[in-house]
Design brief:
Elements (H helix, E strand, L loop, with lengths): L2 H8 L7 E7 L4 E8 L2 H7 L6 H9 L2 E6 L3 H15 L2 H5 L7 E5 L7 E4 L5 E4 L2 H14 L14 H4 L26 H25 L3 H21 L5 H30 L17 H11 L7 E10 L2 E11 L2 E2 L5 E4 L6 H10 L12 H12 L10 E5 L2 H17 L2 H6 L20 E7 L5 E6 L6 E2 L5 H30 L4
Parallel strand pairs: 7-11, 11-12
Antiparallel strand pairs: 1-2, 1-3, 4-5, 4-6, 7-8, 8-9, 8-10, 12-13, 13-14
Helix pairs in contact: 9-10, 13-14
InterPro entries: GIY-YIG_endonuc, GIY-YIG_endonuc_sf, GIY-YIG_UvrC_Cho, UvrABC_protein_C, UvrC_RNase_H_dom, UvrC_RNase_H_dom_sf
Protein name: Excinuclease ABC subunit C
Pfam family, one: GIY-YIG
Amino acid sequence: MTNASLKKFISTAPSSPGIYIFSAKGGKKILYIGKAADIKARLRSYLKTKDSRILKMLALAISIKTLETGSEIEALITESQCIKKYKPAFNIMLRDDKQFFYVGITKEEWPKIFITHQPTFFGPFTDGTALKTTLRHLRRIFPYCTCKKPHNNFCLNYHIGKCPGFCCLKDSLERSGFGKLTILSDSRMDRRIAEKKLYSKNIKAIKNILSGKKTLLLKHLETEMIKLGKEAARSDNRSERASLKEREKFQEAIELRDKIEKISRVFENARIIQNIPYYDISKNYSEKTSSDLGKILKLKKYPYRIEGYDVANIQGKYAVGAMVVFVDGKPDKNEYRRFKIRYQKNQKLLLQKHNDRGNIATIDELANDTAMLKEVLTRRFNHPEWPLADLIVVDGGKAQLSTTLAVVRSKFKLLNPKQIQNSKPEKGPAGPLGSFAGFKIPKIIALTKNEKHRAVKMFVQNKKEAVPLSKLPANVKNLLLHINSEAHRFATSYYRKLHRKKALRPN
């Protein structure tokens, strides 16, 4: 293949993640298979090479084929499968003294996952760094153990959500001082079986992804999620035992939905070679973004500080709220705040009053996201010393928008003007909220999600009709989506932390 023919092919090559295949003998003999974040840019590098082995491969090559993938992770896995299937000669030659990477899985009671050069596991993979990053992404979705020996306390990986916790702990019965007990109570045995089942599912999911069966895995998870949702809906709400089972099934369905979203997000957006974050909008938050956002929302000044809010719960249980803060379009995690909802503590009294009127209801039916949001906002504005926002973004629809506006108005009437004047932002043109000393109540918007739990439209304060996010400029849309997804992530992570803590307590 001459430079001229290579240049001709490069001119039509895609600038997207995928694999490329050099072939000889009319495409029947595969010489080399490679992956790239940008196929066109990678092929262009072959025009400048002086490596004698690559030049030899190019001289033998007759044709090039490309296969686009959804992300670099898929490119990495597809490359691995193709190398294993076709065993191209130049993939071996060009590695020279380097070795391929493989993913090993032990056969212990709690299997461990590791990277190795032994060609008896999942692989081969050509890029060790990309493989490590892929496993790091997957471990956040499907936690697994890497501890070499059991220990008495939860490991660091458990506390950061990378380990289930139960897999590397010594059994509490074995630490009782009476020696190792082999007979467990029924409840302990049931929990042990459930833990093993969950861990096995995590390992199997990672195996499926590394084997290129991502689509099959997603289909299985969606089927299981729908099944759990239907079973929960059929439960008898009047039975206390059935109500508990219903909550558990709904919780499992929600966790499956979150896993599906995370897998899709990793494969659609993760840039594993350059390791670029999911939303890299800080570079795009320029004067144009500020101008566009101000024009759309009719802001009178630059939105220096933006606060995003969301709540997370399973029918009122483990209910939490979250506040995230963006300063100059970038997350300021030092300003993040989380709230453990107290609203649910008063539900029994509310339930009694409700039932006294002849309306039979359960505590779960009285769980109210709007009331929880109201509590979060009320508690937030009990801190006039915190810098106040130019824009507030809440998750929800008209009800959440109205609730937020009502809380803000009522709280600012109660604030002392001196407190407001003393509430200083760190920097920039943002000022404290309220109708005192020339300051006005901030603009409030609510982002509404579709059935796939993706924000699709925006309700704006004092406007009846919703604005589709698809009609917004890309940079403004990305900023709002980033705020919304970050609030959801922060709330959900706190909810899961509380749930894990409760689940791991002895019966």
